[in-house]
């Protein structure tokens, strides 16, 4: 091997094309290999680092697989009770209005037990960013049905598939909060391909830029896989997500500059 | 001397919060304590001191707003009444576990369930014995006057920060609603952000490059770690038991009999003492002011020198358990209580003393 490819050479700043954000704590993530949570974490930290706002950012982690997000994100954080992150974020932002405040929440956290806190923080137009990881399942507790579980989709509490007449419809909470005047920017993204990762990062950047302008809630849904909960390999789960989740949870902007985007019919 | 005013107990709590330099109040309306938020909203504390007042969507949201605010080091409080306090229990347990300072004012009404909007002391167990899940305690203050409603706000905040713990003021609908003279303490300036950061190095309020990140959580998945958390909490409660006991003794010097009562019941007992002494019955009153830590030694010292003790509570007999544990079994200890929102009259308290203790 030529000298210039030696490890020390590669580590020279001028040769580095990509590196893990310094805001990611140097420790192994607790997530299953192939899970989208880790990628979403990394994008979030890259955005804070690029904006150089890490010293003015306060994050709120949920109860769910990302309960330990505070162990991986090298910023000041608070671990909320299940579903209550938007209530914490409300108080934090009101008490530290020149700080950046975000919540990071799963679908059970945000759209089931925490629905009231979600809707009301959104409706008050709190100047916060909400990162919503929708994997259609309760990952942490072992794959139970979530409010976002698709019709017919199997989980440990819908072993024969979600039966809509008895178990209810999947909840498009993102479309719901987009209706609220307190919400300024709503988008649905994914982190399963490099292109989608780039789009997600751009959306996060936009959300934090808007937070600086006190525009109200910026809400980013990330449709993500839960290979363990779905009982698939990571590759299978991403394919399944494209084929089943995306037709129902269509990717793209839902509300921009406080205005709802006209959308073609979504597949029910 | 501070400013003298005629105020409702609930209003005194609100005014004291502003003057104590509180940073944020988060609450949800419920009788008989809605005057706290109403007073605050009318006073525009944001203009007076920069204090934030926010009407939450529920008590669940309110207590978690407290958790959020307290986790950043800010001085926060809520107020509610029994059903609302029940809803807050998960959040209070989280705050105890995460060691967060905050003040929770409970203007108790009769239960169970929706119960009644009338005053009660039926939530003594809930306040003093934990309430939520896990082995935790709160420092619990029991004011017996509008003056104490005011003073306990300041005291409560001081102790909340000293011990990094939620503190509860356990009052009731009568003290919340009644008007009395109160001497208000002077305005204490709200701390600046820089002061909060300096005074609360544990708080999550933005990590400067000079320190590691702060994490506010009540989670430790490692049993050894979680046991350490518990041991630390228990050590803190021990310290409170040693240093924070507050109580009042009224006409105990020559007493042959003793009332033990807190809050409103203690006020009634004071009247009952006058009536009883007019009849020649030498009775005194021991009033715990902190319910946790309970004045174990102090009530035992007085209690073991009388012929009998009547514990008077507006419940079916809750604090009596702590009185019995403290005093032991050498002295006769009986309970007299009315509940469901009924306030006992001094006459019936004297009658109960005569029948259950002196005659019994
Ligand atoms: C009050 C309360 N109820 C239930 C739980 C158990 N619980 C923990 S995580 C979770 C679901 C998490 O699912 P989700 O929010 O979708 O996150 P994911 O793990 O899928 O990322 C549940 C029900 C809890 N911790 N607290
Ligand atoms: S259980 Fe699912 S959501 Fe949780 S880490 Fe594993 S793959 Fe990710
Ligand atoms: Mg989930």
Task: Describe the strand arrangement of the main beta sheet of chain A, using strand numbers.
Answer: 2-1-3-4-8-7-9-10
- Spatial strand order of the main sheet of chain B: 3-2-4-5-7-6-13
How is the main sheet of chain B built?
7 strands, mixed
Mind telling me the CATH class of chain A? Answer: Alpha Beta
Give me the CATH fold name of chain A: Rossmann fold
Determine the N-to-C terminus distance of chain B: 48 Å
Q: Count every beta strand of chain A, where a strand is a DSSP E run of 2 or more residues.
A: 10
Q: CATH superfamily membership of chain A, which one?
A: Thiamin diphosphate (ThDP)-binding fold, Pyr/PP domains
Silhouette of chain B: globular
> Mind telling me the CATH superfamily name of the largest domain in chain B?
Thiamin diphosphate (ThDP)-binding fold, Pyr/PP domains
Low-confidence stretches of chain A: none
For the residues shown, what is the average pLDDT of chain B?
A: 97
Reported CATH architecture of chain A? 3-Layer(aba) Sandwich
The amount of helix of chain A comes to 25-40%
Q: What small molecules does the structure contain?
A: thiamine diphosphate, iron/sulfur cluster, magnesium ion
Question: What are the secondary-structure elements of chain A, in order, as H or E?
Answer: HHEHEHEHHEEEHHEHEHHEE
Number of H/I helices of chain A:
11
Number of strands of chain B: 15
Low-pLDDT runs of chain B: none
Note the total helix count of chain B. Answer: 15
Most extensive contact: A-B, 35 and 40 residues
């Amino acid at each position: 091997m030529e000298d210039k490819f030696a490890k020390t050479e590669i580590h020279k700043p001028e040769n580095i094309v990509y590196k893990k954000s310094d805001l990611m704590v140097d420790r192994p993530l607790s997530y299953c290999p192939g899970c989208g949570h880790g990628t979403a974490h990394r994008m979030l930290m890259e955005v804070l680092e690029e904006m150089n706002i890490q010293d003015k950012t306060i994050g709120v982690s949920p109860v769910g697989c990302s309960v330990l997000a505070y162990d991986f994100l090298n910023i000041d954080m608070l671990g909320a009770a299940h579903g209550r992150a938007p209530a914490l974020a409300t108080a934090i932002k009101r008490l530290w209005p020149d700080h950046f405040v975000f919540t990071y929440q799963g679908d059970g956290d945000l759209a089931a037990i925490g629905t009231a806190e979600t809707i009301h923080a959104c409706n008050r137009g709190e100047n916060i960013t909400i990162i919503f990881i929708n994997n259609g399942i309760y990952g942490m507790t072992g794959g139970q049905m979530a409010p976002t579980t698709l019709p017919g989709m199997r989980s440990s509490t819908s072993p024969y598939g979600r039966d809509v007449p008895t178990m209810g419809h999947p909840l498009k909470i993102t479309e719901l909060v987009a209706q609220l005047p307190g919400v300024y920017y709503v988008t649905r993204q994914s982190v399963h391909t490099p292109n989608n990762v780039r789009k997600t990062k751009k959306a996060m950047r936009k959300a934090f830029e808007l937070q600086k302008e006190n525009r109200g809630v910026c809400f980013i849904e990330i449709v993500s896989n839960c290979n363990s909960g779905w009982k698939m390999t990571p590759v299978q789960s991403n394919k399944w997500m494209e084929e089943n989740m995306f037709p129902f949870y269509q990717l793209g902007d839902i509300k921009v500059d406080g205005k709802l985007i006209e959308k073609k019919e979504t597949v029910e | 001397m501070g400013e003298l005013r005629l105020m409702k107990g609930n209003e005194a709590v609100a005014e004291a919060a502003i003057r104590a330099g509180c940073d944020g109040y988060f609450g949800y309306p419920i009788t008989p304590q809605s005057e706290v938020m109403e007073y605050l909203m009318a006073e525009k504390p944001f203009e007076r001191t920069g204090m934030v007042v926010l009407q939450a969507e529920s008590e669940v949201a309110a207590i978690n707003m407290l958790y959020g605010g307290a986790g950043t080091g800010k001085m926060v409080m809520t107020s509610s009444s029994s059903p609302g306090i029940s809803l807050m229990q998960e959040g209070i347990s989280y705050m105890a576990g995460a060691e967060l300072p905050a003040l929770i004012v409970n203007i108790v009404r009769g239960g169970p369930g929706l119960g009644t909007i009338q005053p009660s002391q039926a939530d003594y167990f809930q306040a003093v014995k934990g309430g939520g899940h896990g082995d935790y305690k709160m420092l619990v203050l029991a004011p017996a006057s509008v003056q104490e409603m005011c003073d306990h706000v300041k005291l409560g905040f001081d102790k909340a920060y000293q011990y990094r713990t939620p503190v509860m003021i356990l009052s009731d609908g009568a003290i919340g609603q009644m008007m009395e003279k109160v001497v208000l303490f002077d305005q204490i300036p709200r701390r600046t952000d820089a002061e909060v950061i300096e005074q609360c190095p544990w708080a999550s309020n933005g990590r400067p490059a000079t320190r590691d990140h702060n994490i506010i959580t009540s989670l430790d998945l490692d049993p050894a770690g979680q046991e350490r958390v518990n041991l630390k909490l228990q050590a803190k409660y021990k310290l409170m038991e040693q240093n924070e006991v507050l109580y009042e003794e009224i006409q105990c010097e020559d007493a042959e009999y003793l009332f033990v009562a807190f809050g409103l019941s203690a006020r009634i007992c004071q009247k009952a003492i006058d009536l009883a002494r007019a009849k020649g019955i030498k009775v005194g009153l021991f009033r715990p002011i902190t319910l946790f830590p309970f004045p174990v030694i102090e009530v035992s010292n007085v209690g073991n020198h009388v012929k009998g003790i009547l514990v008077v509570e507006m419940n079916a007999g809750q604090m009596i358990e702590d009185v019995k544990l403290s005093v032991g079994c050498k002295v006769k200890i009986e309970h007299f209580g009315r509940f469901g929102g009924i306030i006992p009259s001094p006459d019936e308290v004297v009658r109960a003393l005569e029948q259950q203790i002196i005659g019994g």
